[in-house]
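can u pls check wat happens w/ zinc ion
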Amino acid sequence: MRGAMDCPYPSMSCWPYCLGLESAVQCSQIIVKWREMTLLFLMVSICLFPRSMSCLLSNTSYGHQRTFEDIEKEIARYSDVAEKIIKLAVYGKAQNRSYERLALFVDTIGPRLSGSRNLELAIQYMDKALRNDGLENVHLEPVKIPHWERGEEIAMMIEPYNHTIAMLGLGGSIATPPEGITAEVLVVNSFDDLHKKAREARGKIVVYNQHYTNYDKTVLYRHHGAVEAAKLGAKASLIKSIAPFSINSPHTGMQAYESDVPKIPTACIAIEDAELMARLFSRGTKIVVTLKMGAKTYPDADSFNTVAEITGSKYPEQVVLISGHLDSWDVGQGAMDDGGGAFISWEALSLIKELGLRPKRTLRLVLWTGEEQGGVGAEQYYKLHKVNISNFDIVMESDEGTFMPTGLAFTGSIKARCIMKEIMKLLKRLNITNVYEDGGGTDINYWIHEGIP
Ligand SMILES: [Zn+2]
């Protein structure tokens, strides 16, 4: 971890007070113990940030000039506030609250697939819950989202012997004909391997048995597997789940067709089944699979991003955005993806409100809709609000699981990173001080690409 002295601030020379550090460092740290497990969830909301950290060295109307040492001192003055938040969240009456709220929510609503009735109910539920929590400016912002249903689906290996394949159709996939598709299998280990075997692909079901490296790289097989197989005349594609480990558990997700490539049905299969077929194939055994999928795509549905705020006392027009997504896939409860992220984001506002704190900038909670279909709700939010982009100081999202926190991932200028590191020191007592590279997420990347930290 870099120390303050590594930061590219002139030690004693001056730079504009654009940082706004006369304003509050309102670091909210949500640290919640969840029952038997000590799970620490962290959300830092930094209300001290200026009109985006990109203005760090610009001249502003603040007029004052400060050194990094001044900033360190200013941030350190918030240790009492941080302590109060930690006490309330970890040891006080808010202990377990976020977990209990989430358990009630997922047990009551269940899965929340884009376009589903359940997602509508979830949004209504949250709208009411946020109002009951006494948050400000609670409202719903309309967006259009995809509406796809998986329907009945099954995959059977019928040669060399009968074996039911653990499968889940991929989001947006077309259906098979009602009688299904029965075809010989071509197993490939990579896109390169597919292209080497290009002449064998026509009329086959292509099974991708790609090696898992990391999610970002390996997920390309799920996104583009169907299109690449279809280009070579395949009838369907089955993709080994994008995961390093499986207990016969296929893992669904979104895939993308291309307008000039025929659409073929596509599903993910459990790692075990992909590897079984790869072994059979490598020994020259003929494999035949029957795939039946009843997926349907409907016209886009009406939905909403759910918003609540604590209005800023000094710069109410400036926004510190905290978020998670409410929608989920249809085959689970979405407790972790992204119930956890959504509910710790809500908890951040609850804690601040309960302590009677009022940040200088507006703290805005956004619960996105249609994330799993490609950040659809967030994209429309961005298009609607980018006209005010200079008022967005920082955007945050939790969508990678709320497990044992060790810090946060941050994208921004080196100077902004230095400030973030100072702020994270307020969590030293909980040993949650890391500031990692490459912060971001599907729902906030629109802003990050525009330079918002
Ligand atoms: Zn997610």
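Residues 325, 337-338, 371, 399 surround zinc ion (CB under 6 Å).
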